[in-house]
Specification:
The protein has 2 helices and 7 strands, in the order H-E-E-H-E-E-E-E-E. By secondary structure, it is of the alpha+beta class. The protein has a single domain, classed as Nuclear Transport Factor 2, Chain: A (Roll). Strand 4 and strand 5 form a beta hairpin. This is Flavoprotein. It comes from Peribacillus psychrosaccharolyticus (Bacillus psychrosaccharolyticus).
């Protein structure tokens, strides 16, 4: 899936909520880009790797799906203490996937997220 910015499309309206167990805030497209840039920059500076795990995909109806995944960072073969859980809602329109909503739980102790999957 390729995510790109198009004026006046769903990316202009992209919204999300971030909860780090102490502070909950809403964010839009620009804030999402900033957060991803910071995350990738941190991983690159520290010669780390992303450890991603798909928990599951739930059909919501009429081409809408909720993807749930975890992301943590590995540095020198060791996973950092905190991880994130992403709840991403996508829709299939005009022969392409579009992300329409995002909810992120941040700062979760990584050991609490070991290999969860939806049956």
């Amino acid at each position: 899936m390729q995510l790109r910015r198009n004026e006046g499309t769903y990316f202009e309206r992209l919204s999300g909520k971030r909860n780090n167990q102490k502070l909950c805030d809403d964010f839009g497209y620009e804030e999402a880009l900033k957060g991803w840039r910071e995350g990738f920059s941190f991983v690159q500076r520290n010669h780390g790797q992303w450890a991603m795990h798909e928990i599951g995909v739930i059909p919501l109806g009429k081409g809408d799906y909720l993807g749930i995944l975890t992301a943590s960072i590995m540095i020198d073969g060791k996973r950092l203490q905190n991880a994130n859980v992403f709840f991403e809602t996508f829709t299939y329109q005009d022969e392409e996937w579009k992300r329409v909503r995002s909810y992120i739980e941040t700062g979760i102790p990584a050991e609490q997220l070991n290999e969860y999957t939806l049956a």
